[in-house]
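Researcher: Following up on the earlier apo prediction. This time include the ligand. It's zinc ion, with the SMILES given after the sequence.
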Amino acid sequence: MATNFGQIRDQLTDFNSFGLMTTLIPPPPEVQQCWQWNTDSSEVQLRTNSGNLLRIPSGCPIFDQELQEFERYIPRSVLSNDFASTPAGGQFTAGMAADIQEFRVDLSSNPGKPSTTRIALLRMIYQADIKKIRMREEGGRLVVNKITGQLQPYDAAYPQPNITTTIPNTSQARNHLDIIADINLNGARGFYGPRSERCRHGKCNVTGPCVDQSATVEYGPDLLFQPRKRFTCEVNNVVYLLYCNECLRLGLSTTYCGETEEKNCHQRFGQHTYKFSTRSLNTRFPKGTNERLVALREVFQGVLEGDEDPDRVMQDPYSHFTLVHPPTNGNDHRRYVFIDGGFPSVRSRKLCEMKFISFFGAVDYNYNTHSGNLNHM
Ligand SMILES: [Zn+2]
Ligand SMILES: [Zn+2]
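Model: Understood. Below is the ligand-bound prediction.
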């Protein structure tokens, strides 16, 4: 029987029977082959060349078998780009969506200088992290060729870089040939299957390196979790796991489970470096990063000397990643994994969060090792 790909997405997003059991089942084998994903915060509707209307919920894959050989999924970040509605931008999106291997974008079809059109187009393509394409310039046109082979992994020779289209510390565009070279290198490399992904934004230097991009995440000794969807740090409306990589290295497990609402992950995760995760602790401790840090240091010192910690001040991501395992040599020990997202309601998100708090929080906080569950429950 032919696989019903819509059913797989329905199963991935069944928020009624949603919960631990569903999410802890390893992802269906078909999704391991997927390289095109809707990592946007909301659902995308896609009319394919063969006339099907696909509903792709947030975090879900588009299967190769649902598209014609050269037909490509166009991420919303491309479609919402102002340039996409210009004639040259339209030639690009139409060419990507069509079942043709090669197409051209005429740089003189937009008003203004072709070189301006060229840089705007290249920026849009590179920033959207578009895979399996190879480009070249040919007499006032950009030729786009769709690759059909397998994506190569990122490796030491070409690690996964942040995507930048301007010269560092300026707003001036990089040389177009350099951007084309990067589009081609990056377009030949990528991941298959579900996992958390860094967003690749040029300025994502703090959160990005903290995202654990593994297909199977080890968050404690012999403790494994397999994501079933794909999200990046640009999304909101997700439930995430935060674990300590240094504790893991020491044979310990320290975890925290949280949710994001209106704040995207950059903002939410950043809070773990300057405030507590509970309102009561933030109220009790003075405002201001420095004042708070000084007061927290006092508590930690006391704990090290044998004091009790009745309010469990140390059992918090802020305390753990500021004093127990602060960054060493610029290496942040926080690791983030997106558990699930695209929730249809606040209630379903809270329910998911609660279930995972009790699941990941199975290791009680231990005042001898300063590790364990960082959620106050
Ligand atoms: Zn990011
Ligand atoms: Zn730790």
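Model: The chain is about 30% helix and 15% strand.
Researcher: Noted. I'll compare it with the apo version next.
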